[in-house]
Design brief:
heterodimer, A: 287 residues, globular, B: 275 residues, alpha/beta, Rossmann fold, six-stranded mixed beta sheet, 24% strand
Chain lengths: 287, 275
């Protein structure tokens, strides 16, 4: 009957989407459709992000500073303890720590929150059609905003300790973008898994904790000299390294490092997207 | 029991001159041999731990699940201007069909074609955020129904005009009464001028005056040649508002025709079963 050629505005929707015989064309069609859906429902994402941030920050004047209290205390303690243990200059250590621990907050926030993003929005999903991608996306964006705000605020606080603006920091938007893509990919995987297997979130927590200690955030990467494969196997390391390069070391990151980060981010998003999309239709029956 | 698919004497490809939904040359709603299988997992909390255990212990049927066909082989074409009332016993698949049209459930097999904007009034206040004010919720709901912020801003006045809730615009929704809630939800769904409006049992809520207003509003929507699909047990409302009836039983459309006849048939059958 109706072929795809007839679809013109007002938007006609076909479920399941018309099948292209070839896999690449089908994948492309899915991506195009998702892009279109996200564009259409972008105001919902904006609204959900704004709402969440408002609740977190606006209710009290000190709201934002309360959320900074945790990282500040954490960083102070870690600086005192680890600069002693490692015999580093505390000021320098604090800045290195800062450049790694703030991005890590994005990753861990994304993973723990994405795990529940589908389950928590059950009410919405069962009542109204929304592209389900917006739920993990919203969590990631909220964490992204939090990270950028923490970066700015903590940077100012660290200024007396010698944190200063460096030209290399102009690369930060790009690095943050890559790291966000990486986090989103993992977030999509976790969101899918946890909806099917509800104990996944516990594993994620444990896994994140282990991963955190295995990544050179609290200690310099040079400590891994004897076991370089541990760094090579850590997909978060290139990103953290990039952050440390531009924020604390003040050196231009190597192109190799950038390409590694970009590659890992792409693979992460690709796998996450594939995992999410192939299970998207089943999600509603698992709520 | 073959579900009857009625073919209205309407255009499927010819009349491209007609405005709105027919721009693409088809009916607003077309279902081709649509089936929907519900798999209900007895244990929603299925865990990795269990999955691993099941694998190790080689359990044959690891996940206790039962499935049933909520909809089976539905062929349905809804033409522009149709006001469809769906009747049937509880569990006949009426609400499921509505949710399928709203795209909440994907079909297990078959093809669903929807042309135009869909506004689902399946559960009152779907997508409302109780913490947000009435006005913010209007904007949020508009976004969820796929409207741009600017478009929605133009409709705010109309919504408040219809609901009479202007003075509560800044009040968080959690302080609204259920009647106010319903009114707001209904007003939003109808004010956005959807091509397809889906209503599930919602007309019962609200005071009498509002129900009258609501009915008048649905009629107004129909005059703008939109599609309305209503699921209800209120035969009087259905008879008043719908032109076409669908009688569903066990996930199939068993009868399709003028609303009056369908209701008579349905009531007679129910009475026969009860007697």
């Amino acid at each position: 009957m109706n072929t795809r050629t007839t679809s013109s505005p007002p938007h006609a929707e076909f479920f399941p989407a018309p099948r292209s015989p070839a896999a690449p064309a089908r994948i492309l069609a899915t991506i195009v459709e998702d892009a279109e859906q996200l564009r259409r429902f972008w105001p919902v994402v904006q609204n959900m992000v704004a709402q969440e941030l408002r609740v977190r920050y606006q209710r009290s004047v000190l709201g934002f500073f309360w959320t900074l209290l945790n990282p500040i205390l954490m960083m102070a303690t870690l600086t005192v303890v680890f600069s002693q243990l490692l015999g580093d200059d505390p000021k320098k250590y604090a800045i290195t720590l800062f450049s790694g621990i703030v991005p890590w907050g994005l990753l861990s926030g994304c993973l723990t929150e994405c795990a529940f993003c589908i389950i928590q929005n059950e009410g919405l999903i069962r009542k109204i059609f929304l592209p389900k991608l917006i739920f993990p996306l919203t969590r990631v964006l909220i964490n992204l905003v939090t990270m950028v705000l923490s970066f700015a605020a903590l940077f100012l606080l660290l200024a007396p300790l010698g944190a200063s603006f460096k030209a290399q920091m102009l690369l930060l938007p790009l690095i943050i973008a890559l790291f966000t893509v990486f986090s989103l990919g993992l977030g999509l995987i976790v969101a899918t898994m946890n909806t099917f297997y509800r104990d996944c979130s516990h594993l994620v927590t444990v896994f994140l904790q282990a991963w955190y200690f295995a990544t050179p955030i609290l200690y310099p990467a040079t400590r891994f000299q004897n076991v370089p494969w541990m760094l090579a196997l850590n997909p978060a390391y290139p990103f953290i390294r990039l952050f440390q390069n531009v924020i604390s070391d003040g050196v231009w990151p190597s192109l190799t490092l950038f390409l590694a980060a970009a590659g890992i981010a792409t693979v992460s998003l690709g796998v996450g997207y594939a995992a999410f999309k192939s299970n998207e239709a089943k999600l509603i029956f698992r709520l | 029991m073959q579900p009857s698919s009625r073919t209205k004497p309407s255009s499927s490809s010819a009349s491209k001159t007609q405005r709105r939904v027919d721009a693409s040359g088809g009916n607003p709603v077309e279902l081709q041999d649509v089936s929907l299988k519900f798999v209900s997992y007895h244990d929603k909390q299925y865990s990795l731990k269990r999955a691993a255990l099941d694998l190790v212990l080689r359990r044959v049927n690891p996940m206790p699940a039962s499935d049933f066909w909520a909809l089976s082989h539905i062929n349905l074409t809804i033409a522009k201007g149709d006001r469809v009332g769906i009747v049937g016993h509880n569990g006949a698949g009426k609400s499921t069909l509505l949710r399928l049209l709203a795209r909440i459930y994907p079909p297990t097999s078959g093809l669903v074609k929807i042309r135009g904007n869909v506004a689902p009034l399946i559960e009152m206040g779907a997508g409302f955020n109780p913490e947000l004010s009435g006005l913010d919720n209007i904007m949020l709901n508009g976004a969820m129904l796929g409207l741009a912020r600017k478009q929605m801003a133009e409709k705010v006045e109309g919504i408040f005009g219809f609901t009479g809730l202007q003075e509560f615009a800044d009040l968080p929704l959690k302080y609204y009464s259920s009647g106010m809630y319903t009114r707001l939800a209904f007003a939003i769904a109808t004010e956005i001028d959807p091509d397809i409006l889906l209503i599930d049992e919602s007309l019962g809520a609200g005071d009498a005056a509002f129900v009258e207003k609501a009915k008048a509003r649905i009629r107004g929507l129909l005059d703008r040649s939109n599609v309305v699909v209503i699921v209800s047990h209120d035969m009087t409302s259905l008879r008043e508002m719908c032109t076409r009836g669908l009688w569903m039983n066990k996930g199939q459309v068993v009868a399709d025709g003028p609303m009056g006849e369908i209701i008579d048939g349905y009531l007679a059958s129910s009475a026969a079963q009860a007697g």
